[in-house]
Amino acid sequence: MSQILCLSMIGAVIGAYLGKYIGWAIRAWPSHEKFHCDYLKCPSCTKGLEFGCCNAGIAQERVYIALSAIVAGVSVFFFGFSIKALISWLFVAACLIVTIVDIRCFIIPDCLSKGGIAAGIIYAAIAWASLEFGGFKLSYYVSFNDSFIGFVVGGGFLMFLGKVSEVIFKKPDGMGGGDVKLLAAMGAWAGWKPVIVTVLIASFVGASFGLATIIYDSIKNKKTYRPMSHHIPFGPYLCLGFLITFYFGMEPFLNFFNAYQYWVMNR
């Protein structure tokens, strides 16, 4: 037990060191799609603090560092010093970047989603080759076929919903291209079954939050709801659904679905 705690502490220290680069990516990717060293100075930028720049200030930097350290430490505690622990940290870091950038700018960096697609398929190929030719299975394993089908299903599903939305509501961009590419990347890393569960969780949470917001605005601010008048970032909900599926698997969702089906059949 003491050895695991020691390894977790080492993981947390490494995570804390890497945490500042999460903030760097959040500040650099929205408008440039590239890293710039100048963005490392944002936390201490006095001019930015004076004018209320969302990138300025050390407070959010500390949050990124603390979250990164916690995720790295917990990942090592449960998965050991393994590929799965590293991937666990990478998934959370990527989802944090997507969530904040999408909320602030209503975009998802192509560099992250397209790179995620390529990396996911390449990783699946390496995992397959290591099992087929090396005789050992990586701590995080997804078959190449599952990865490729997940990529196709993930991207194709949201693209189909976007086209349906355009036809029904006579309004373009019903589903943003960034969301399509993001879900395709998630499918490449997780496979086609988890990506479907991811969409279902994201849709349920997103719809619940949207309904709660409408009710709150109508009661608190006396605001009349107008259909299709608000643009809601879907990326954060996809990230939430993806992380829930990654850490807890599909079993809780399947149990819930079976319980609901049993309740419907025996009413």
Question: In a few lines, what is going on in this structure?
Answer:
By secondary structure, this protein is mainly alpha-helical.
Description:
It is a single chain. It contains ten helices and no strands. Helix 1 (2-32) packs parallel to helix 4 and helix 7 (177-190) runs parallel beside helix 9 (235-248). Helices cover 76% and strands 0% of the residues. The chain starts with a helix and ends with a helix. The model has no long low-confidence stretch (mean pLDDT 83). With 267 residues, the chain is an all-alpha fold. The longest helix has 31 residues, at 2-32.
Kindly, what is the distance between the CA atoms of the first and last residues, rounded to a whole number of angstroms?
49 Å
Ranges where pLDDT stays below 50 over 5 or more residues in a row are none
Binned strand content: under 5%
How confident overall, as mean pLDDT?
83
Shape, per Cα inertia axes: globular
Oligomer: single chain
How many helices in DSSP terms?
A: 10
Structural class: mainly alpha
SSE pattern? HHHHHHHHHH
Proportion in helices:
over 70%
- Biggest sheet, open or closed, and with what strands and sense? none
**How many whole angstroms does the radius of gyration measure?**
20 Å
Number of strands: 0
